[in-house]
Structures are given as C-alpha cells and as structure tokens.
Amino acid sequence: MSSTVKEFLDQVVAGGTCTGCGLCAGLDASQKSYMRATPKGPRPVISVDHEIPEMIRQCCAGHRIDYPGLYRQHYGQVPENWLTGIISEVYTGYCTDETIRRNSSSGGVLTAVLCYLLESGEIDAAVVVTQGIPEPEKASVVIASSTAEIQAASQSVYVPVSTLDILNRLDPQKRYAITCLPEQSAALRVLQQQGHANALSIKYVLGPYTGTAIYPAAIETFQRINGVKKQDAVTSLKWRAGEWPGYLEIITRSGKVLRSPKVYYNFLIPFFVTNASLQSMDFANEFADLAVGDAWSPEFESQGQGFSVVVSRNEKMTTLLKELQQKGVLSLRKEPLESASAMHGHMIDFKKRGSYIRNRMRRMFGRKAPDFGYKPASVGIKRIMVELVISAIFVLGKTRLLRLMLYLLPERIIGPLFNTLRLKWKKVSRKTKRQGLESYAVVITEKQP
Ligand SMILES: Cc1cc2nc3c(=O)[nH]c(=O)nc-3n(C[C@H](O)[C@H](O)[C@H](O)COP(=O)(O)OP(=O)(O)OC[C@H]3O[C@@H](n4cnc5c(N)ncnc54)[C@H](O)[C@@H]3O)c2cc1C
C-alpha cells in the first residue's frame, strides 16, 4: 500500500468516482476533515492531520466494496439472485396514515417504520436526510429524535447528500436507525463487520431503491429555464410534492411557483446525472434491512395515492413489518419477486449490466472506476451497443453546449418531449435490456479470504 490515506482519498476525488457519501470525513477521529458543497455535490476536504483509519480503503464506494465478501460476512452467503440480493419477504403497500402517505415519496413506508421504531423505544433517534436544511434548496443529514422531525424528512432527495459524515457525531451508547443509499448501506456494513463502535450503534439500516440522482446544479438550471431570476431566492423545494408519483415543486420569494411532474423533470437526468448513479451496481439497496421503491405498475399507477415495493432482507425486519400490518400502521400485500422485479426491470439492468459496462469503458479510457468484486457472467453485444448509446447521451448531455441548449427550450416543451422520447427508447431497447436478465449470473472477481 504505497499511498497515504490522504493521497488515496484525494485520488478518488480527482479520479471522478467519489460518491460524496461523507464516510471518510465521518471516520476522521480528529474531526478535522469535512465535506464541502460543490456543484457536483459534497466532496471531502481531508486534513493533513486527519485520523482516518486505513480501513477506508475497504469501504470507500468510489474505490472498492467487495460485495461477495460482504455478502458472506453479513448474510453468511452470496445471493442466489444477484439482481435483487438476499430477500426475506417482498410486499407492495403503503402507510395507512393519510398525511404521512401523501407527504411521502411513494407509500410512506420508510417514514412510518422509522416513526414506529422511535415510538416503540427500539431506537433513540433516526438519522434521516431532510430537504430544506440548512437552506430551502439544500439537503442535509439530521439526527431526528421526534416523529415530527422524521416526518419532516419524508420524500426522496434526488441530489447527493453526505449522509455518513454523521458517524462521528453518533453516541455509541445510543441506538439509531438510518436511511442510506445502496453504496452507503454497504459501506456501513463493512464498518460494522470491522467492529466500528459508532457504526454498530446503528441497529436498523433502511433505504430507498436508487436509480439516478442529479447534481445540485440541475436545480439552478431548472429555475433559470423557467424564468426565475438569480436574486429570486428559493423558499421551498419538494421533490415529490402532491399526488403520487408527485412533482418537483419550487416556490420562490417573489411567490413564483414552479411545478413539474416527476416524469417530466426526468429530462434533467441526461444533463446532470451523478457519476455515482452511473457506476453503482446496487439498485435494490442490497445491504439495507428494509429497501423501498416506487411500485411502478399499471395497477397501482392508475390509483394514484402512493404505493411502494417493500423488501425485507431478514427475519427481524419481516416480523416488524407483520407487527405493523397487524396494528394497522401499514397495509401490505405479499408480492411475488418476479412481478416486483418486473416493476424495475429497466433500472435493475441499468445498474447490474449498464454500470459494469460503463465502469469497464472508463477503465479502457484510462480512467478510474470502482470495483465491486463481481461482474456479470456474460453481456451480449447488443446490450453493449445499447449502453454505448446511453453513455453517449450522458457524455454529450454534460457538455456546456448541450446544457446551454436547455435554455432555448421551455420546460413545458422539453418535459413532455423528453418523456415521449424516454418511453419510445424504453420500448425500443426493452427486448435487449431484459434479454438474459432472468438468468443473470455473476463471476466473482474479488479474491476470497
Ligand atoms: C436518489 C434516489 C433515487 C431513487 N431512484 C428510484 C428509482 O429509480 N426507482 C424507484 O422505485 N425508487 C427510487 N427511489 C426511491 C423512491 O423515490 C422512494 O424513496 C421510495 O419509494 C421510498 O418511499 P417512501 O414513501 O417509503 O419514503 P418516505 O416515507 O418518503 O421517506 C423517505 C426517506 O428516505 C430518506 N431519504 C431521502 N433521500 C435520501 C437520500 N438522498 N439519501 C438517504 N436517505 C434519503 C429520508 O431520510 C426519508 O426518511 C430513489 C430515491 C432516491 C433518494
């Protein structure tokens, strides 16, 4: 190991693979390192006097997380199904409290479970991500010790948030639940395996399915193309306001209200998608005790209101969910894994094969890419061609010229236009993207201990 920890972390940032999770800052016992806000999300500033342990090299998601090894340590086995990971039960459903359900991203299940854990004394506090802190257009990790604070954190935050720099603020004598994105959950499990006291104080890891996040610069572009002046400050921002699937809602000091349905503001993705979204091979939050996504299916979408796919990864969580069902807090229906997976086939493929191809291409061009210790056993040439098209769109979308072109098209045109093109592309690429997915197998590339 030739580089120092600081050199190693600086290289991860310079190499463009830092996910901004905050783990390195959260592991710095000296507390001199910190996360700095940048247009590409939070990035670590590592102090020369830091006290970050060497083990950061084993849990930095921008560098390497050995998923097969972690599977053996955490679950005692590798999954049979590498698309969705190890599962105890799969449900579709929602929280029965109408206010929570309505204010949430999909069915309000994450908020309801966190509130229940706190009220029943299972945890002392929940570590959540809240939009609007410290400023309306920003989001931060918060230690919530009341159900009101947990409810204030409802809804997904689609820009990167450094969640794990909270670690050195946790009290190892207390018990926490946390919401994490997939690589953050995995990194946390590595720390727990290593016996890190603060990581072990986290008794429950909950998290969303995670497809794509966008850089914070997207928010500003969205305002400008909608005619909001720079001096007209944002007073409120919600990513999933209103009836499910909801809309992006931005209110400014002058009283201007911008609303864009979720399916329309997706047009920002090709221009601002984060590198972390493109490199992660984990969609279904494989190391969270409870993973929740939107229940995208005609049956649920036609009803509105909010429905989630709810995945429990162990017996303890399944027992808790059953208890919540019995108490009438959650309404859950068992869902066959096949139909639950079909709701997310495109995104599962985007991560499980797409990220592998994209990471490989990065390495071919001499760039850094993270290593997750496994690769798909086979990827057909057609699938590679599809990925070339997708990657070309992402590369072009991030050029200044294309981003400037956004300003020429009003959002009311580009939103529906993008959605139509997206649906057409989904239809055209569907066969190739789903082909072979049901028999997805992997080759473990990490050396076994
Ligand atoms: C970046 C991102 C991408 C996503 N992509 C998909 C997708 O492609 N397909 C899909 O089906 N679902 C996706 N989701 C999940 C979906 O948006 C909902 O979060 C999920 O359905 C849970 O809904 P809920 O109503 O139970 O959550 P809620 O009850 O609304 O609670 C949300 C909880 O998530 C936590 N949270 C929000 N944002 C973050 C964040 N950035 N980091 C850590 N914790 C956070 C909050 O602390 C809160 O407790 C994504 C979520 C995120 C954050």
From TrEMBL:
Coiled coil feature spans: none
Boundaries of every Coenzyme F420 hydrogenase/dehydrogenase beta subunit C-terminal domain copy: 174-334
Leader sequence segment: none
Annotated InterPro entries: Co_F420_Hydgase/DH_bsu_N (IPR007516), FRHB/FDHB/HCAR-like (IPR045220), FrhB_FdhB_C (IPR007525)
GO molecular function terms attached to this record: oxidoreductase activity, acting on CH or CH2 groups, with an iron-sulfur protein as acceptor
Domain Coenzyme F420 hydrogenase/dehydrogenase beta subunit N-terminal stretches: 90-167
The protein's name: Coenzyme F420-reducing hydrogenase, beta subunit
Organism (species): Lentimicrobium saccharophilum
